[in-house]
Amino acid sequence: MNQCRLRSLARIRRSLTLGLRGTDQHVLARQALRTIQTTSQRRGVHDLDSFANGCSAAYIEGLYNKWKRNPSSVDESWNELFSSNDWSSPKRSPLQVSHSRKYRRPPVERIAVKARSGERTASGGASAAPAAPPSDWKNIDDHHVIQAIIRAYQSRGHLAADLDPLGIVGPKKRTSVDGTQRHAAREVLRQHFSYIFNDLNTVFKLPSSTMIGGDQEFLSLKEILDRLERIYCGHIGVEYMQITSLTKTNWLRDRFEKPGGLDLTKEEKKLILERLTRSTGFENFLAKKFSSEKRFGLEGCDIMIPAIKEVVDRATDHGVESILIGMAHRGRLNVLANICRKPISDILSQFHGLQATDSGSGDVKYHLGVFQERLNRQTNRMVRITVVANPSHLEHVNPVLLGKARAEMFQRGDTCGSTVMPIIIHGDASFSGQGVVYESMHLSDLPNYTTYGTIHIVSNNQVGFTTDPRFSRSSRYCTDVAKVVNAPILHVNADDPEACIQCARIAIDYRTRFKKDVVIDIVGYRRNGHNEADEPMFTQPLMYQRIKKLKPCLQLYADKLIKEGVVTDSEFKAMVSSYEKICEDAWAKSKTIKTIKYSSWIDSPWPGFFEGRDRLKLCPTGISTDTLKTIGNMFSTPPPPEHKFETHKGILRILAQRTQMVQDKVADWSLGEAFAFGSLLKEGIHVRLSGQDVERGTFSHRHHVLHHQSEDKVVYNSLDHLYPDQAPYSVSNSSLSECAVLGFEHGYSMASPNALVMWEGQFGDFCNTAQCIIDTFIASGETKWVRQSGVVMLLPHSMEGMGPEHSSGRIERFLQMSDDDPDVYPDTCDADFVARQLMNVNWIVTNLSTPANLFHCLRRQVKMGFRKPLINFSPKSLLRHPLARSPFKDFNECSCFQRIIPDKGPAGKQPDCVQKLVFCSGKVYYDLVKERDDHEQVETVALVRVEQLCPFPYDLISQQLELYPKAELLWAQEEHKNMGAWSYVQPRFDTALLKNENESRCVSYHGRPPSASPATGNKVQHYNEYKALITSIFGELTPENKKRIEDRIKKQQAKAKADAQSKPSTKPPAAPPKGGSSPPPGPAPRKPLISLPSRPPRGGKQRSGSAPAPNLVDEDSAARNREPDASAYDGASPSAWKRSGSAPAPSVVPRASASRSPSRKSPSPSHDGISPSTRQESLSKKKSGSAPAPTPTSRGPFRTAPSNTEFIKRRPAKDYGSRNETQSTPGESELDPTKPQP
């Protein structure tokens, strides 16, 4: 600490000690001292409140000694300080040096000062505490304790609730001073536990945070404790204090705490007994008839059926017309019989092992679903009850059910869940153990996924198969996962039927009032083992010893009502015998049933869809050119100027490119997709697209939802404003979940056939986290449950050097699960062969290569007379590839989906000259086109694209085999040999070849060798694998090939350099002189340069340049390849341009790639039409300075004519700060716009 700072401290300290306390000078002095201390603290000074710390003590002592010898020898400020009466010579001994980094404030002596106006205390500013007014402070403190006790019961009373009917887990009762045993222990009351042993007759005023008093304002301590015990520590344990909404918590308090709120009438109790009799009687009857048959009965949790019936009754009374139930296998047969009223004879016939009259594999009886519409006798209203079929994967039905419920709400126009309600029945172990529960829960409040409240009922057996809860979960309750959405959780003892019914009532009323999820945890037990043939004593001996001694819930409740006089013993026995007779009659009827139909157990019928429809008729998928232009113009138009929507500059450039494509009558991938969506919307078909980042697109190609750059929650979607009477279009980014979201979309597609429902993976690789949904629902749902679905999965897939988890969509897995026989050649002479083949397969697998084929494929999904899932492996680099574009003529009424695309170039015109016939699929075709041109084998190698892999196009493949009788047959794929389509197509190629008796050829494999990893993450290895693939098909490049490629590269570079030099200066014009004269005239400003393909001139000469190379590395190079290839639309190779005398006009290199960095080197040869095999040779021969100069493009805004488009105000979960309009864009920064941005 320097001398100046010490003088300042001394001066301030002196002012503080000379009677300035409480004055303005004192306040200023304290602030100045605090500032100096803060600065000193940053520099490492310790013990700031002491005037002289260990670092400055010697210095001050020296000044003091010097002052004593001669007062004028020190500074005036030090003289004043040392001369003051309150100064004493510093001693060495009291000074303590603090060596700790942590600041330790020394004890401050507090000086009591009489408080008066304008004065402060010596502690630094706080007024002295006034004397306590005369009052009964003990009484006030007691009231505060009572309020804390009430709060403790509300927050933690469930910890002491009597929930376990077995008595294994439960609270230990404590005896109070009045002899009453109470459940609440220290874990509930904590520091106030001893207070309950005080005088229990003391009367207290109740706080407003409780409603236990009803109309009474004062209660004794004993009555307060008794009421809280009955409410919170009885057979119901309620968790609701975690809810942040005061309205919700007050509503729940009112329902639980108000005196008499949980009472039931005699008629209601009798109805509960009747329903419990049916629930228990059904299980007893099945146990008697099928003692060793697996049925996964509900014994031990029988009250679940009356609870569900109570939910159904009150829901229909509130206006609900459709109830959807999702559940696992336990108790399913009882739900079908007593909730859905499925004829018991039909259920019993499933035990007889009868032959089915319709096709399919069927499923076990405890997995089946049902769809019933019946009259609810309690409310006299019709209700539709659907139990969704579910595999053994327990909780994975949850998102499927939620998606189906959401779709029904959309069909009914229900925007708040008032007519449709989902109920999900969980198991205790699966509810806490399976991650899909958490994923599904998080959909509850998302705008495009919410179902406005779901009733969750947990059938808590207190054991998972053979695992105790203490080994199956870390949380206290199995329902703790529901706290993430602030759902109230009602724990209830399964052996208290009245408490269960009250919880059911409160749950449905809460859902109706607040449109939020609610959980009922019915804590019971499992009287048998995991199934009826299992022995539970192996693993839970003590538990099952208690279960054997315990009376069933029905008997306990009947004894209770008989004792209360609600029913007599004879009335109860009459109930039991009456239901037994119903079951016996159904048993007799079931014996007369000789066959069964799988279709009678369908859970999602589409009434009216199949009636009068020719399922084998394939409707045309093309549309008119006028429709294409209308959709294209709207899709490429920015928001209208009059709405002052601030659009991102990068988006404006993209829209300008789309406009140019519409003018040129050509479409890239995003425009082709928009044509499919827009045309279906025009025809009244609802289109729904969801997944991670689908609004923009993982690879920034879609941009359906535009965001205002300076205002939050303002978005614009042009596809919402195509036509006045169009169908709704829904596109929404989902949560970061594949399993739950894909299951949701699958359920959405089940509700109605008149919708195109799509889920797009961020990368195709990520679908493996949704494998359970794919395997058990999508792939086999129709075969097991006769349930059709038209859901579309879009999986980005291609090998572009992006590593093992960003390359493969796992084509082989989907093809392996396809159920078409590879050894049977179908009847291709059938006029309906194509439609019949599609109808007989379990799903459709495509790997498309053109936007037009994507357009027709998506429209075909809706135009077919049936529904099949579509698995499409969408591209990545092809999204912007200049060759992957389709002319408008491929979308018109005369066009259709192409299952294969034959070679239409020189090889296809002269098939006898073809030496190799290469079959391929997807993006690898564009690699082969470039390499074939580089190797100058366009006349000897024919390339045929197999667009539809499953079902296999036998008829078209046979035609190609006959067309090239002398050609060697090859299958080329970029995937490894044990992956991709090879294992699927190989036996089917053999079947097609064996069909011809004169055929002796076979198809050979050309691709990467087998590997456990889908792709390499090493760029060098990726290039080497690519080179090996190309060499195996075309051989090595000859010297002539290399010379031709190098000449082409030099010509392209020279042209780019010349264009850059000839481009006029883009500097702004100079300011006019002060004299007011105008500047000299100059050239007119150029229009914005747009990197877009031009239509090939008719009869024109070949321009310099050639077709660019397809992307071999990643999406980055796709943005660099901007030269269009019009002949590629028809399958011709780039080398055919010279012979035809026409070529597309070259385009300007886009700013996103050309000006990415000022020090950027010249593009590598692989980006300019040369293969990786000649990369080193080309680079070694390039001369310095031959790199083309970057050609900037215009950055001006793109304007269009105004329209009457409206805007959507989005309601996000949180408000984020508005973004700066000057933030960098992918096209203006070093980021690559073709890569997914975080």
TrEMBL record:
Keywords: Glycolysis, Magnesium, Metal-binding, Mitochondrion, Oxidoreductase, Thiamine pyrophosphate, Transit peptide. Its EC number is 1.2.4.2. Residues 667-881 form the Transketolase-like pyrimidine-binding domain. GO terms for cellular component: mitochondrion. Residues 80-138, 1049-1238 are annotated as: Disordered. Its cofactor is thiamine diphosphate; Mg(2+). GO terms for biological process: glycolytic process. The keyword Protein biosynthesis does not apply. Residues 1139-1166 have a biased composition (Low complexity). GO terms for molecular function: metal ion binding; oxoglutarate dehydrogenase (succinyl-transferring) activity; thiamine pyrophosphate binding. SUPFAM superfamilies: Thiamin diphosphate-binding fold (THDP-binding). Residues 106-119, 1049-1060, 1207-1218 have a biased composition (Basic and acidic residues). Residues 80-98 have a biased composition (Polar residues). SMART domains: Transket_pyr. Residues 1066-1086 have a biased composition (Pro residues). It is found in: Mitochondrion. Pfam families: 2-oxogl_dehyd_N, E1_dh, OxoGdeHyase_C, Transket_pyr. Belongs to the alpha-ketoglutarate dehydrogenase family. The 2-oxoglutarate dehydrogenase complex catalyzes the overall conversion of 2-oxoglutarate to succinyl-CoA and CO(2). It contains multiple copies of three enzymatic components: 2-oxoglutarate dehydrogenase (E1), dihydrolipoamide succinyltransferase (E2) and lipoamide dehydrogenase (E3). This is 2-oxoglutarate dehydrogenase, mitochondrial. It comes from Drosophila melanogaster (Fruit fly).
